[in-house]
Amino acid sequence: MSPGRKRDFSPVSWSQYFESMEDVEVENETGKDIFRVYKSGSEGPVLLLLHGGGHSALSWAVFTAAIISRVQCRIVALDLRGHGETKVKNSEDLSAETMAKDVGNVVEAMYGDLPPPIMLIGHSMGGAIAVHTASSNLVPSLLGLCMIDVVEGTAMDALNSMQNFLRGRPKTFKSLENAIEWSVKSGQIRNLESARVSMVGQVKQCEGITSPEGSKSIVEGIIEEEEEDEEGSESVNKRKKEDDMETKKDHPYTWRIELAKTEKYWDGWFRGLSNLFLSCPIPKLLLLAGVDRLDKDLTIGQMQGKFQMQVLPQCGHAVHEDAPDKVAEAVATFLIRHRFAEPIGGFQCVFPGC
C-alpha cells in the first residue's frame, strides 16, 4: 500500500469467499432450531469449521478460499448457537454438551444416516466444542480433528482476566466500518481482508433504531446515517426514551452476543480438554500461535507422537484470520499426508518439522 493511502474498512459480503449459504433446520422437543452454514466445494471430505466465542462462521471466509484452492474438499462453516445468524429457542445455553449435540444434529440434518467423511476444525471455543463432539462420537464419519490456538492450561489461566478484556472493548460502534477499523487497530484481527468479512458476523444493529420513515438507509448492508433534526411535540415522558434512541443512532451497532454473560460455561468448555483431545482415536492436528501455549499433558502427548503440531509465529489468537494461507497450508498438508484428500492446483506438501 502506498504511503498516505487510506485503508478501506468497508464490509465485504460472505459471497466473495463462500459459494452458498444455507439455513439448516433441526427439530427438537420445543420446535425448530435454525443453524446458518456457509458452504464451498463439491468433492472430497467435509471440513466442518467451528468458530471461537463471539465470532461467527464468517471468520473462516478467507481460510475457505485458501484451502479450496489447495486440496479437493468441501467446506461447511457453522454459526454456533447464540452466534451469527443462527436462531435457536434457547440461545443462552452455551454448554459444551449442548453445542456438541448441535454439531451432531446439523450433520444429521444435512447428510442423513450416511454422512461423508468429516474433519472437525475449531478455533478457541470452537476447538473445545470440536473435541467434545469428537469424544462423544456425535459425528459417525469423523476422519480427523484440528484445534486452533486452544490449550486447556492456557485457556484456564486466561479465564481470570477474560472479564477485564471484555470490559475493555467498546460496547457500541458508529458503523460497520468503525467496528472493522477497531478490530484491526486493536489487534483482535490482524488481517484487514478477514476483518472486513468477519466483523459483520460479530456485530449487529441495535434494536429499535429504525423507523418506517427510514431515518437510515440500508445500502449493501452498510447503514448510512442521515443527520436530520426532527422537531415535534413529543411529551416529556418520551424525552428519556428519545435520548436513548439518539445514543443508539450515534452508535447503531453492538455485539451480537454478550460474552460476559456466558461465564458460567467457560470452565466446562476447557477443563479436561487436553486429555479429551489426546483420547480421540483419530489423526489430530494442533495449530498454535506460540509454543509457550502447550500445557503438561499436551507436551507429553506431543513427545509421544499422539498428534501433529505446528506453531505459526507472528499471529494473534485468531490464527486462521491472521494467517489464513499458512493455516490452509498446514491443514492441506495434514489431509494429504493421511490420504484424506487430493491436492489440486499443483499444491506441494511441506511437512513441518514438529
Automatic annotation (TrEMBL):
Residues 47-330 form the AB hydrolase-1 domain. Gene3D superfamilies: alpha/beta hydrolase (3.40.50.1820). It is an enzyme of class 3 (hydrolase). Residues 223-233 have a biased composition (Acidic residues). Residues 236-248 have a biased composition (Basic and acidic residues). Keywords: Hydrolase, Serine esterase. The keyword Hydrolase applies. The keyword tRNA-binding does not apply. It comes from the Eukaryota. Residues 223-248 are annotated as: Disordered. Its EC number is 3.1.1.-. It catalyses: [phosphatase 2A protein]-C-terminal L-leucine methyl ester + H2O = [phosphatase 2A protein]-C-terminal L-leucine + methanol + H(+). It holds the Pfam family Abhydrolase_6. InterPro entries: AB_hydrolase_1 (IPR000073), AB_hydrolase_fold (IPR029058), Epox_hydrolase-like (IPR000639), PPase_methylesterase_euk (IPR016812). Belongs to the AB hydrolase superfamily. Binds PPP2CA and PPP2CB. Demethylates proteins that have been reversibly carboxymethylated. Demethylates PPP2CB (in vitro) and PPP2CA. Binding to PPP2CA displaces the manganese ion and inactivates the enzyme. This is Protein phosphatase methylesterase 1. It comes from Felis catus.
